Amino acid sequence: MHQNLRHLTFYPSLLVLGTLTGMAVFGDGLLLSFTEAIHEWLITNFGWLYALTAFVLVIMAFLIFLSPLAKLRIGGESAKPLLTRWKWCSITLCSSIAIGLLFFAAAEPIFFIMTPPPSSGVEAMSNKSALFGLSSLFMHWSFTTYAIYAIPALIFAIAHYNMKMPFSISSAMSAGLPLKMTPVVRQLVDAVALISLVAGIVASLGLGAMMLGGGIQRLFDINVTSTMVGMLCVVVMAGAAISAASGLLKGITFLSSWNARALILLAVVIFIMGPSSFIANSGVDALGSYLSNFISSSLDTGTVLEDSWPRDWTLFFWANWFAWAPITAIFLGKIARGYTVREFLVFNFLLPSCFVIVWSSVFGGLSIHVEMATQSLSQVLAQEGAGDVIWAMLEQLPGAKVLMAVFLCLSIVSYVTAADSAVDAISGICAAKSNNSEVNSSPYYIKLLWGGIISVISLTLTSTGGLDGLKMISTLGGFLGMIIVGIGAVSLARIAFSLDGNAIAHEVDNKKSSDPTGIALSNTKAPER
Which of 16, 132, 164, 376 ranks highest by number of CB atoms within 10 Å? Predict the structure, then answer.
């Protein structure tokens, strides 16, 4: 096994994560206070950069969709797709929204109904605050989120499959730029990305398991302890590791495909059983508010108006997505072979964003309807926490027990489908054969090893209450992730926009030419599919 590892990616990551875990367990709040101070400093001094980078990525995604580069086939003209369109779409959806949206689609609007931004002039617990809450949910989970994932994933796919560059996120950074990346630098860049993602996975896994624990407690009327929550983390990661070890075309594809179908069916059932007209109307109202305020909301740091809300919420979300983006980009880029750039953006940017808006309209709209009628969800949020809001909301519907049981099962599967793709990508960049483009490029025992490592850290921190510190580490990693993603975006822009549109690449390779980017171009037109 030792010979199959990229040592400078695997061991530094393990050392840093182990040290952070030790600080959380034995440091008596040291990790949380330290990371909170750094996080606050970064958001205060670089909030503008988070906001501007995220906004530019959205614009860039639409421009590339309309550019000549959109005809480029990832992997070359003869490349065959690894997955069908449905399997590709389902994996993308299930590997990116994770479990967070399942719970926070109901809880987040209640947060904003209770505490809208002071500078907005919106009164708390009012109809306007309800509209603001739902439109903010769209803002935080849809187009900007998927642009943060899609842009680095796209340039990684082009770099790896078309330019034959190593299986490393550093390839995305140097594909269109004159950056010299030695093997040592590549491994260290991947290590930074890996640390950020594992911290994010562990924090999300622990917090999500607590939410699942709330559902188990309400459904079966049993007291769920922190140890039980920790064991739930272990079970989820064991399933994820086994799924990842079975390979992309087996466990990951199977779970994602059926989970996506179940999520769509559940949304339809909730829409029919709930206040359908209110959900539809409020969703359209919120969509209009979201689109009309997109630019101002995207570029609001709250500095001039001395309002901390954008930093506490929007910029916090962007930092978290940036932390996940580099490794998520590797996975999404890996499964894109055989499709065009335009198809890539449809399935990794447009369709997932639209699904999130529909899902948020259904669950967020129902949550708002229940709150406006009963004022009960705000009490649940204040007294029991965000993880209990979804369960309290489902209790208001006919057949509540059945719906809660189904939602619980789907949440667990959603956990596994999100974690298995992350484990697959992590294992890929830790494997020594980094130039291998095959779908099962990393040995199965590396996947099982990382599944075990994440399980141990999750169990330890969940049982000792150290998750808040590691959650903050994830957002700190978002700053480094933003740098990686930003350089990758410039690299992609140089390929897409600095060339004569009539002679742009339909197939890129790693041979030098006289074009401005130093990347050879072919005029061969990609056949339409």
Answer: 132
Residue 488 DSSP label: H
* 194 or 1, greater pLDDT: 194
Q: Is 431 helix (H, G, I), strand (E, B) or coil?
A: strand
DSSP string, 395-422: TTSTTHHHHHHHHHHHHHHHHHHHHHHH
Q: What is the pLDDT of residues 474-487, one digit of tens each?
A: 777 889 899 999 99
| pLDDT tens sequence across 179-206 | 888 889 989 999 988 888 787 777 777 7
pLDDT in tens, 77-133: 899 998 899 999 888 888 776 677 888 899 999 999 999 999 999 999 999 999 999
Fold classification of 2-503 is Amino acid/polyamine transporter I (1.20.1740)
Q: How far apart, in whole angstroms, are the C-alpha atoms of residue 417 and residue 96?
A: 9
Query: What is the H or E stretch that residue 45 is in?
Result: helix 30-66
The domain ranges of the chain are 2-503
Query: Which residues have a Cβ under 8 Å from the Cβ of 230 and sit 6 or more positions away?
Result: 206, 209, 458, 459, 460, 462, 463
One-letter identity of residue 408? L
Q: Do 175 and 165 meet the contact criterion of CB atoms below 8 Å apart?
A: yes
223-229's contacts with Cβ under 8 Å and 24+ in sequence apart are: 226/462, 226/463, 226/465, 227/463, 229/462
**Residues 162, 319 contacting (CB under 8 angstroms):** no
Is the distance from CB of 96 to CB of 359 less than 8 angstroms? no
Rounded to an integer, what distance in angstroms lies between the CA atom of residue 496 and that of residue 177?
A: 12
Q: What angle do CA 81, 446, 323 make, to 5 degrees?
A: 70
> 3-class DSSP state for residue 162?
helix
Tokens of 106: 């109901």
Beta bridge partners of 5: 431
Q: Is-contact 113 124, C-beta < 8 A?
A: yes
136-176 per-position pLDDT tens digit: 999 999 999 999 999 999 999 999 999 999 889 999 999 98
State residue 433's pLDDT score. 61
Amino acid at 264: I
Cα distances from 289 to residues 132, 286, 512, in angstroms, run: 8, 5, 48
Contacting residues for 225 by C-beta, under 8 A, at least 6 apart? none
